[in-house]
Design a protein that fits this description.
about 0% strand, 6 helices, about 75% helix, about 130 residues
């Protein structure tokens, strides 16, 4: 299995489309897919970019096929923990922001309900005259 086929294995593992992978890595539209179909190679600059954008890939596996596709937990654990922590903080901030928006919208909705009821009462009183 050559490097391009190993990259395709990684794409399949990640569950992303080849097109999305091409966009992420900076391949032109369809270029990776074409290289894969024609069993061609890719440049070192693209391999470096892949390894930079997907740090979980084991470089030895990508280049030679030796070892596991993904780095072991020990190699990547510290970076992963920081990323997970950062992502968790960002997600919690987003949740807090959305909860605040929901509360504001609920209050606004209640005020509209009150206004509608007042208008209905006014209309009812007007119609009785």
């Amino acid at each position: 299995m050559n490097t391009v086929k190993r990259i395709k294995s990684f794409i399949d593992y990640k569950g992303i489309s080849v097109r999305k992978f091409e966009e992420t890595v900076g391949f032109s539209n369809g270029s990776f897919a074409s290289q894969y179909r024609k069993n061609k190679t890719i440049g070192v600059d693209k391999v470096e970019n892949i390894l930079h954008l997907f740090p979980e890939i084991n470089p030895e596996w990508l280049l030679t096929g030796k070892g596991e596709m993904l780095k072991t937990v020990n190699e990547n654990n510290e970076k992963t923990a920081v990323v997970v922590l950062t992502d968790s903080v960002q997600i919690q901030k987003k949740i807090n922001s959305l909860e605040l928006k929901v509360k504001r919208l609920e209050a606004l909705n209640e005020s509209y309900r009150e206004e509608i009821n007042e208008l209905k009462n006014d209309l009812s009183a007007y119609e009785k005259k």
